Amino acid sequence: MNWNQIRTVYGKEMRDALRDRRTLLSMLLVPALVIPGIMFAFTAVSLKVVKKAAEETPAVMIIGPGNSEPLQKALAGSPKLRLVPAASDYAQQISDKRIRAAVEIPPGFEADLAANSIATVKIYTYEGEMKSSFAAGEIDRILREFREAAVTRKLGERGLNASFVRPFEIKRQNVAPPEKVGGNLFGGFVPYLLIILSVVGAMYPAIDLTAGEKERGTMETILCSPVGRVELVLGKFLTVLTISLSTVVTSITSMALSAVGLVHLFAGKVGAGAKAVNAATGQQLPMVDPVGVLGVMVMVLPLAVVFSALLFSVSLFAKSHKEAQTYASPILFLTILPAMAAMLPGVELNAKLALIPVLNVSLIGKEMVSGSFRYDMMALIFGSSCLYGAAALAVAVRLFNRESVLFRT
Question: How far apart, in whole angstroms, are the C-alpha atoms of residue 233 and residue 321?
């Protein structure tokens, strides 16, 4: 193995790749500009939509308003609700967004309260619609306060206090640090994103350096050069791996900087909400361990070797870009499901799962993002991924030495 030749091939292919606008778009422009733009636009639009929905005074209909004058007055007294006349087509009006919610007071409501019978008040909403949910939340708050007042009044009539029906309070206290909470919430997404980016980043250069060479008619010229087949494969493979890892690093860095920028840019809008959560719960907001994210990137490295070699091998069979994309696309689809494993509840890492490629990195990545480092599993997964990468690279070298693959008819 001649490392000078490998370095020469690698340098030549990297120069050609950096001259290619499509490579620069996928490796630099999209992660550096498009991803932050999408994040900023999505955050701004989301905040605007939520703010608009929260500021709107939703139209609400009371069905059976004469069944309880006190409850009707309580609902009418809310500045966050706008009452409309009752109608029989309330469900259709909710579906048509003419009203946001409806509340049905059953006949004999006041008589049931006086007789200590249980009455049922129904709230009709449009599930999944934000403004309808806000309206239902306000109605629910008013009904709860009305119920508490009724209970307190009845207890007072009998000389009892609230502890008679509520002898003790229940308070749930979280003991997990913010990193653990953040790891459980976002830990599955981080490795998934890194894995998918490593595949997407390797796909185009792998196709261009194999099927692209055939399509341009330069494969024969390369094979006639004094460089050995092994050196050619390794030089091209290192180019694919470099672009894949560059895409991952650029994308993650861009998203991290964008997240920091979003916090500062929208601090006035989301900061009050964050402080309210802290004050109400006495806990910090969820966060992820940055060391864990860096650790996941290290764990993805041998997996990127596997993807780069695998995509390189598959693309060797193709005679054109279009055909290579047809062969390479299933690899991306087959990667998505195991990469999502960390997002599924109840999937825990063990020694057997640690040997399954993609799945192992996904599961250990979730633990690392939450600040949990199981060094025995990390070593097992890193070692097995390195073996898979070496095997995939050996297959690529063997296929590149077969004329029947390079010049398939």
Answer: 19
* DSSP-assigned letters across all residues of 70-121: HHHHHHHT-TT-EEE---TTHHHHHHTTSSSEEEEPPTTHHHHHHTT-----
Contact 102, 90 (CB under 8 A): yes
Number of Cβ within 10 Å of residue 260's Cβ equals 10
> Using alpha carbons only, what angle is made at residue 181 by residues 179 and 184, rounded to the nearest 5 degrees?
105
Q: State mean pLDDT over 286-307.
A: 82
pLDDT band at residue 130 using 50, 70 and 90 as cut-offs: confident
* E strands in 155-211: none
Closest CA to 235 of 5, 28, 1, 395: 5
How is residue 357 written in tokens? Answer: 């490629």
User: Residue ranges per domain, the chain?
Assistant: 3-31+179-406, 57-164
Q: Which pLDDT value is given to residue 190?
A: 81
Query: Among candidates 103, 112, 52, which has minimal Cα distance to 78?
Result: 103
Global pTM reads: 0.71
Is residue 243 classed exposed, middle or buried when 0-12, 13-18 and 19+ CB atoms within 10 A define those classes?
Answer: buried
H or E element that contains 122? strand 122-124
Query: Averaged over 284-295, what is the pLDDT?
Result: 69
* Site of tokens 């009452």: 83
User: Which residues are bridge partners to 62 per DSSP?
Assistant: 103
What CATH number was assigned to the domain covering residues 57-164? 3.40.190.10
Dihedrals φ, ψ of 59, to 5°?
A: -80, 130
CB 47 within 8 A of CB 266: yes
Residue 339, CA distances (Å) to 73, 129, 177, 246 in order: 54, 31, 26, 20
Condensed to tens digits (0 to 9), the pLDDT of residues 383-407 reads 999 999 999 999 988 888 887 777 7
Name the pairing type of β-strands 122-124 and 101-104. Answer: antiparallel
CA atoms within 13 A on the CB side of 374: 17
